[in-house]
Amino acid sequence: MAGLSPAQVHKFQEDGFLVLEGVFCPEECDRLRARISEMVAGMEVPNHCRTEFSTDEEEQLRAEGSSEYFLTSGDKIRFFFEKDVFDKDGNFKVPQDKSINKIGHALHAHDPIFKKITHSPKVQEMVRSLGFEEPVVVQSMYIFKQPKVGGEVMPHQDATFLYTEPLGRVMGVWIALEDATPENGCLFFIPGSHKSGISRRMVRAPPGSVPFTSFIGSEPVYQDSSFIAAPIRKGGLVLIHGEVVHKSELNRSLNSRHAYTFHLMESKGTSWSQDNWLQPTPELPFPALYS
User: Fold this and answer.
1) Pairing of strands 153-156, 271-272
2) What is the pLDDT of residues 178-189, one digit of tens each?
3) Which structural domain, as residue segments, surrounds residue 236?
């Protein structure tokens, strides 16, 4: 792939996102899904780490154990679950492979199949087209969006959680491993919303504090009519500006909506906030994309 055309670069700059069909072949998508199936089949999650993932702020901040498990996942591969999949004793109420919300946050570093896709020439050339000189990979996630139970992701901006100075240095790469439709929870965007900056940040609390994170600033109320759907077929890819407002609805269909996503930061001339929940570690500094 020769990278993005000038028209595609312009559209991304204007809208804050770009939908690209047919970037990866079905076989590449199936290899990622097969690898995840192996991980799920072999996962051993202690009861105290059986964490239900929520995008609701109050639920996140109340879940003390969940927060610690989440905050220390940046250099690991960990499992996060949908609501109401455990009984009171921490046992699964549903099949394991139907219980998971996502796996994160260092698939790109620890698994060779995901690392190969993350650093693929296709991705590298697209990122170069957008002017990234020294991009690094800061996190990665495999998102399941389970049939009938795949949770809603509330409107948000990625830079709220992955803050840099200056802003405008973070971008998401979202790969559809199955068709994503309005019925099964495709992404929705407010075009051009990346041009207004961010209105709030999630920051780490001082060591020993509970909750482990808090929000500063306030979240605007977004009108549903402002969002447009971005359906995409298996193998397609969506580029997501760090400040564009986006969301996804509940999966009300009988079909899952698997996706692999990772975030990049232009490291040249950029300061990664020490208040971010995610921090590089001596064991895993943010790896260079162009390596």
Assistant:
1) unpaired
2) 999 999 999 999
3) 6-272
